[in-house]
Design brief:
rRNA binding; 2 helices; alpha+beta; Outer Surface Protein A, domain 3; 4-stranded antiparallel β-sheet; elongated; Ribosomal_uL6_a/b-dom; disordered N terminus; ribosomal protein
Length: about 240
């Protein structure tokens, strides 16, 4: 007996995340994909879902083997009028959460491309009402010491000895440097190529100066991120 299929059942349902969602057929989602474009000055290599991005500021590498999707670099042909270098990400027979990984991986690769081209720069402000926070940066600019936060001191064993300040030592993550701002008072500047390392280093500094056992609506002392920008400003 010859089986007759409806026309809508023969259409392969697909979603291109760069555009609006397509109407799905009766057989469910089969294919979903998105593209990540990059400029000629950046080189992207993918092997076994390990992404390596090389640019003017250096090289970044991310291991994405835990994400089940197809990743490949598309090189434009020589005859192309407008050559576009891009990375194609494809998910087959994915559910809602699996398809959502496409945008996550795309954002990771886009941040890597931006990092090797322009870098990431976080600015942090030292906020205090009465006790000035002392921040001492190491000579190699990879660690920082914080003293006199809320005037905290610890007593010594000898009763005649003066109490000393509590010292908070924070070591920055790999590839991140810190320095004091030359134009603004009580401002720290963190710079690096990897947005994860820069943001996590800023979070470590902020987390080391949290007010404990007091009303945080009144005691606002601490070190806070005030601005997020790039080391090299892109050309408009």
């Amino acid at each position: 007996m010859k089986q007759i299929y409806k026309e809508e059942e023969l259409v392969i349902p697909c979603v291109h995340l760069g555009l609006d969602l397509c109407q799905l057929g009766t057989c469910g989602l089969i294919l979903a994909w998105c593209d990540v474009g990059h400029s000629e000055g950046v080189k992207v290599a993918i092997k076994a879902r390990i992404v390596t991005v090389t640019g003017p500021r250096g090289t970044l590498q991310k291991n994405l083997q835990h994400v089940d999707m197809s990743m490949r670099v598309i090189t434009p042909s020589e005859k192309a009028v407008k050559p576009q270098h891009k990375v194609k990400l494809v998910v087959w027979h994915g559910g809602r959460k699996h398809v959502a990984c496409l945008r996550t991986v795309r954002s990771v690769i886009e941040n890597m491309i931006q990092g090797v081209r322009y870098g990431f720069l976080y600015k942090m402000r030292l906020v205090y009402a009465h006790f000035p926070i002392n921040a001492i940066i190491s000579p190699d600019k990879t660690s920082i010491e914080i003293r006199n936060f809320l005037g905290e001191k610890v007593s010594r064993e000898s009763p005649r000895a003066k109490p000393c300040f509590i010292v908070r030592n924070i070591s920055l993550l790999e590839g991140v440097t810190i320095e004091e701002s030359k134009n603004v008072k009580d401002e720290l500047v963190l710079a690096g190529n990897d947005i994860d390392m820069v943001s996590q280093s800023a979070a470590a500094i902020h987390g080391a100066c949290l007010v404990k056992n007091k009303d945080i609506r009144k005691f606002l002392d601490g070190i806070y991120v005030s601005e997020k920008t790039s080391v090299v400003q892109p050309e408009e």
